[in-house]
Amino acid sequence: MTLPLLGAAIQRRDLDTLRDWIFEPARAIEIQDFVMPDVIAGDPTDLISSYKFALEGHRGPRGIHGPFFGLDLSNPDRDIRAVIQRRLLKGLEIAEALGGSHMVVHSPFTYWHVLNSDNYPGIADQMLNAMTDCLAPVLQRAGEIGCTLMLENIDDTDPSARVRVVQAIDHPQLRVSIDTGHAALAHGRYGAPPVVDYVAQAGALLGHVHLQDADGYADRHWHPGEGTIPWAAVFAALARSEATPRLILEVRDRLERLPATVKALKERGLAC
């Protein structure tokens, strides 16, 4: 298989630290400064300008992590969905300004929905209808600027839930995202399928992957190799996939060690 060129999730300070490692091979980046409510609701002009200056010469793909705190895409209240739409449209405005071609958004599905599917038989359709309504203007705008929304698993224990939503909405700018650490947490704590099954379930709709290690207990965002995720199996599953997702290392600390982390994966024949 062709070894994947791994990109990185960054904030502004990280770009200066990792500039050469990112720029020379044209790695993908995912900008994550704009997830905070105060940032996305405020005036991001100065931060955008700083990024534009720092990104001169970057030839790799770009994207942003969209806002998510308190933004339930399946919220049944139409008035609240209008606020969520405004926040996501603001995210797309930022993505367009920075040349971003993907924006990560969070899934609303939880273990509660799995446990209570028989008690509330209409909830799946209700959530789908609310998500369809919430995302309609966002996806329209995403299509106009060439940006794809990536629906990331958070508390999901059913790997197919997001896949069914993406299939039902059936929009070219909506794809499935997998966070390996979130999947590992769901597997370890709730008995959800392992990470490789999340990859298999996504199939050709997989557009994006957050690569982070964990221990099956919490959302660690460790460097690959520091937790318990079987990376050889995960990369083999990705190689078998019909899709060619954007692969983003999303670690919380010591980003200056990312080149060493990728070197270790490369030595195992997994990535470059």
Give a written overview of the molecule.
- The protein has helices at residues 12-23, 37-41, 45-54, 78-97, 111-115, 123-145, 161-169, 180-190, 195-202, 231-240, 258-267; strands at 7-10, 29-31, 62-65, 102-106, 148-152, 174-179, 206-211, 246-249.
- It has 272 residues and is of the alpha/beta class.
- An eight-stranded parallel beta barrel has the order 1-2-3-4-5-6-7-8, surrounded by six helices.
- β1 (7-10), α1 and β2 (29-31) form a beta-alpha-beta unit.
- α4 runs parallel beside α6 and α9 packs parallel to α10.
- The longest helix has 23 residues, at 123-145.
- The model has no long low-confidence stretch (mean pLDDT 96).
Largest beta sheet: strand ordering: 1-2-3-4-5-6-7-8
Supply the helix-strand structural class.
alpha/beta
CA(first)-CA(last) distance: 12 Å
What's the total helix number? 11
Number of strands: 8
Give the low-confidence spans: none
* Beta strand %: 5-15%
Estimate the mean pLDDT confidence. Answer: 96
Radius of gyration in whole Å, from Cα? Answer: 18 Å
Major sheet characteristics: 8 strands, parallel, barrel
What string gives the helices and strands in order?
EHEHHEHEHHEHEHHEHEH
- Helix content estimate: 40-55%
Shape: globular
Topology of this structure?
Elements: E1 7-10, H1 12-23, E2 29-31, H2 37-41, H3 45-54, E3 62-65, H4 78-97, E4 102-106, H5 111-115, H6 123-145, E5 148-152, H7 161-169, E6 174-179, H8 180-190, H9 195-202, E7 206-211, H10 231-240, E8 246-249, H11 258-267
Parallel strand pairs: 1-2, 1-8, 2-3, 3-4, 4-5, 5-6, 6-7, 7-8
Helix pairs in contact: 4-6, 9-10
